UniProtKB/TrEMBL annotation:
Taxon lineage: Bacteria, Pseudomonadati, Pseudomonadota, Betaproteobacteria, Burkholderiales
Region (Disordered) location: 56-78
Name of the protein this chain belongs to: DUF1840 domain-containing protein
Amino acid sequence: MLVTFKCHASPDVTMLENLAQYLLGIIGKRLGPRGVITHDELDAAITKLEAAIATDKKERSEHEGHFHEGEEGRDHHELPVGLAQRAFPFLDMLRAAKKEQNDIVWGI
């Protein structure tokens, strides 16, 4: 299932339900049929999401040393897409909503 986040300050952001549930969980919200992130909640939401992205980047950089690209007898390993790439459109929406003091809604 797809979830579409809407805000007057930015284009709609559509993502798979499992990613929406994960990102909302990071910022302390639950995915329901309908929901809202009020402009008063945006500072905390942005801070929490940025912290999660920083942690993910740190953990990914630590694991990159375990991939031996180009070594003889080793298969090429591609790192999966990180949280920064997956969360960027949503984080961008949060920042735009904060700038214009808008709420973000879904399920409407």
